[in-house]
Automatic annotation (TrEMBL):
Protein's recorded name: Cysteine desulfuration protein SufE
Pfam families: SufE
Taxonomic superkingdom: Bacteria
Gene this protein is translated from: sufE
InterPro entries in the record: Fe-S_metab-assoc_dom
UniProt similarity note: Belongs to the SufE family.
Every Fe-S metabolism associated domain range: 15-127
Gene3D superfamilies linked to this entry: 3.90.1010.10
SUPFAM superfamilies named among the record's database cross-references: SufE/NifU
Length: 135
């Protein structure tokens, strides 16, 4: 998975439809999520498209499997994950993920339907990280 900094560097040079294409490409690059993990328990509420996020652990580091049934939304999920993937749970729980995504100006680049679920994705990831960090 590309780093958020690398994605931002590329994103800043693009405009309009090229930015959409980059998001779709990021979604295609996501690690495949087995269908068996796409359950009601892993479904993120409040997204316009179906989004599933499943956390795994390697020591204190979190690794997320995720998927969506919509290409642009899947790219947004990949963007969110690039900010938190394979970091320690305590770091993810304390991270300002929305702040890390601010340079992408998603609210002005995409329709509100596309971005409405982003806070819910982030909340689920941070809540999971906080629960794991507390154990």
């Amino acid at each position: 998975m590309r780093s958020l900094d690398d994605i931002r560097d590329e994103y800043e040079f693009l405009e309009g439809d090229e930015r959409y294409r980059l998001l779709i490409e990021l979604g295609r690059e996501l690690e495949p999520m087995p269908d068996a993990l796409k359950t009601d328990a892993t479904l993120v509420r409040g997204c316009s498209a179906a989004v599933w996020i499943y956390p795994t652990q390697d020591g204190d580091r979190l690794h997320f499997l995720a998927d969506s049934n919509a290409a642009i939304t899947k790219g947004i999920v990949a963007l969110v994950l690039s900010a938190v993937q394979d970091r320690p749970a305590g770091e993810v729980a304390a991270m300002d993920v929305m702040g890390a995504l601010a340079p992408f100006d998603l609210k002005n680049q995409l329709s509100s339907n596309r971005t409405q679920g982003v806070p819910n994705m982030i909340a689920l990831i941070r809540d999971t990280a906080a629960r794991i960090a507390a154990d």
